[in-house]
Design brief:
Elements: H1 2-12, H2 22-35, H3 49-56, H4 58-67, H5 72-107, H6 117-141, E1 146-149, E2 152-155, E3 158-161, H7 164-167, H8 169-185, H9 190-222, H10 224-253, H11 276-299, E4 307-312, E5 320-324, H12 328-334, E6 338-345, E7 351-359, H13 365-370, H14 374-380, E8 384-396, E9 399-410, E10 413-423, E11 425-426, H15 440-449, E12 456-464, H16 469-483, E13 484-488
Antiparallel strand pairs: 1-2, 2-3, 4-11, 4-13, 5-6, 6-7, 7-12, 8-9, 9-10, 10-12
């Protein structure tokens, strides 16, 4: 159940692609522990209902997660409940000695659960800015002109973006996994495992800094074309080197093994299984959780002949415009089904950059649509958030859309950003697209209404040339009233 729910993040988010290895690595560590298991001891008496309360939590967690696959708090809740149930069954099988012996291989799977969004974003942004800043300092010290703008490095040969792959966040996550695995494989003492973990994290940051310096120097010497061809191979090489260094250090920290006798000196205890009745009831309950979850949403997903969505008419009328090609890197990250970018110059002298994306209904639509927003992406490109005006409902002659508004300073200019994120809805009921900003009320409401895997739409308008956000908002609202139309199919 846990692997099934986490697999979406492992597939859609490149930072967690290593998660596909985790079940196999955890299984291998479990096999190693099984071969050296201690004799089971008799479990102490404790109220049986405590374990069943934890098992009951699977139902509300699965209901929440089915409607909110991007809510990482629920993913962590599911992982911890699954771990608690596993520990409970181990305890019933072999007592405390088995819990202490077998806890690590199962707890190891927690490394595959995506980090909380706030922590991940803060760490990622700081690492990207730090790597870019150190790279610029080194280039200037070597006599190469370089200027940092957020996560971007401006050179006379072009612009280099320090993205997630170069920041060290992926290496931190994979090195954390590798350090704990190697420490368990070599059976290092706790203090040495901690030292290996600290060394691995430092090593990941240093090697990614070397990667950024290498790519920047390559761009200076051979241009942007060489940078594109070496970007991914350099990342693979750096990752391999960091793992190799980690293995060498772990081998040095390993205590010399005792000589092995031809025959084992201790008898491996016989297999002990959990109480048959508890195991059967637990398996039946897990099956029922999946059946009830699927049944609840299918009950609300009766076929509807008509679905409603809105559409922005493009090209605009009465303004000069151009349609721009979205970079292939952005396409591979967002994985939208329909999308375009356009630039519009209006008679009042303002310039509008318009982005429109749509994801068809499916399991990954919500995760992909909500993974990138102005407060995340613009700071990564060097923007500074000056004002966040929150969200308000934009009433377009009965069609109500959630609109978020921001003001950024970017490259010496003031940008006013207007952002709409909405979901596909049935024609029945109010013609209102409620906020899908991830508020807790909205997430619970989706469960009550039995809504999941809805199609998603994003509209982002970045305007320059207005003195303040209020005036920009009036112009954007006037434009949207003329250009957004509701469509049904």
């Amino acid at each position: 159940m846990l692997v099934k729910q986490l697999s979406a993040d492992w597939t859609l988010n490149p930072q967690y692609s290593y998660g596909w290895l985790m079940p196999f690595l955890s299984g291998y560590l479990l096999w190693l522990r099984w071969m050296s298991r201690p004799p089971p001891d008799r479990p102490a008496q404790f109220p049986a209902w405590t374990g069943w309360i934890v098992a009951f939590c699977l139902l509300p967690i699965r209901l929440l997660q089915e409607a909110n696959p991007d809510w990482r708090l629920v993913s962590w809740a599911l992982a911890l409940v699954v771990l608690a149930i596993t520990v409970w069954m181990i305890y019933l099988s072999g007592g405390r000695s088995w819990v202490r012996h077998f806890i690590f291989p199962f707890a190891f799977m927690l490394l595959s659960v995506p980090w909380p969004t706030g922590l991940e974003t803060a760490l990622e942004q700081n690492l990207m800015r730090g790597v870019a800043g150190v790279t610029v300092e080194v280039m200037n010290w070597l006599g190469v002109w370089a200027v940092q703008q957020g996560n971007l490095i401006h050179l006379s040969q072009g612009v280099i973006g320090i993205n997630e792959a170069c920041s060290g966040i992926r290496s931190l996550q994979s090195t954390l996994m590798a350090s704990l695995f190697v420490g368990e494989f070599y059976q290092l003492r706790p203090a040495r495992r901690g030292g290996l973990l600290a060394f691995g994290l430092v090593c990941a940051v240093v090697f990614n800094l070397l990667r950024a310096l290498f790519l920047t120097g390559l761009c200076v010497l051979r241009g942007q074309a060489a940078l594109a061809s070496w970007h991914d191979p350099a990342g693979l090489l750096i990752l391999s080197l960091s793992f190799a260094v980690l293995l060498l250090v772990a081998a040095r920290l390993r205590t010399a093994p005792e000589p092995r006798d031809p025959q084992p000196r201790i008898k491996i205890p016989s297999v002990s299984l959990p109480p048959f009745r508890a195991a059967v009831v637990l398996l039946v309950w897990i099956f029922l959780v999946e059946v009830l979850t699927e049944g609840w949403y299918r009950l609300h997903e009766h076929p509807q002949p008509h679905l409603a969505e809105w559409k922005l008419e493009w090209p605009p009328k009465g303004a000069s415009y151009e349609k721009r090609e979205i970079p292939s890197e952005i396409k591979s990250i967002l994985r939208y089904d329909e999308g375009w970018q356009g630039v519009m110059k209006r008679p009042d002298g303002s310039t509008w950059n318009v982005f429109s994306f749509r994801w068809n209904p499916g399991k990954g639509a919500e995760t992909l649509a909500r993974s990138h927003s102005p407060e995340i992406c613009l700071p990564a490109a060097g923007g500074t958030l000056l004002e966040s005006a929150g969200e308000e409902v934009l009433d377009l002659t009965g069609l109500r859309l959630p609109l978020r508004m921001y003001t950024f300073r970017w490259n010496g200019r003031i940008l006013h950003v207007f952002y709409v994120l909405s979901e596909q809805r049935d024609v029945k009921g109010l013609r209102e697209w409620p906020s899908v900003d991830g508020s807790r009320f909205r997430r619970f409401e989706a469960v009550i209404e039995g809504k999941r895997q809805l199609g998603q739409q994003v509209l982002e308008i970045v305007v320059t040339g207005y003195p303040d956000l209020g005036q920009a908002r009036l112009e954007v609202e006037r434009y949207l009233r003329q250009s957004i139309k509701e469509s049904r199919h």
